Amino acid sequence: MTRPTNPGRGARAQVQMGETIAILLVFFFFVVIGMVFYVNIIKSKSATEKEENTQLEAITVLKKALALPELQCSRQNIVEDSCIDLLKLQAASIVVPQHQEYYFDSLGFSVVSVQEVYPSTHNYTLYNSPLDKYSSKSVTNAPISLLDPVTGTNAFGVITIDTYAR
Question: Which of 28, 32, 116, 121 is deepest in the core (most CB within 10 A)?
């Protein structure tokens, strides 16, 4: 005795197979969209971190420049914060450019300049070692006091650090 074949059974299997394939396609579509979204978030975070590192590098160079003994103000062997001796600055603006390789470890690829703003105006370029081809440039300004040790007076100035990154 032969069993009768059920023609609906094969058609039903084909429909179930089609449904499974459609579900898998939708699943992989969502996985691809999720991966694209995740990659964009990672790119955004890495760009933000790179910008933060560039700014931290600029602040580090600023602190190192203000801590140079060639520039620091001192009264009775006590160093003053955010103060530059004008006589030392004038001498250093001549000597430091002649010995840039010595200062490269501290200041790297940057330009350090000091501008006296009040009561008179003078510009001093202390260190000048920029990159020719750079990916980003960060400019950091900080107010400073400029001490004239001869007269004992202070002037107002701004130190500007241009830091370059590859």
Answer: 116
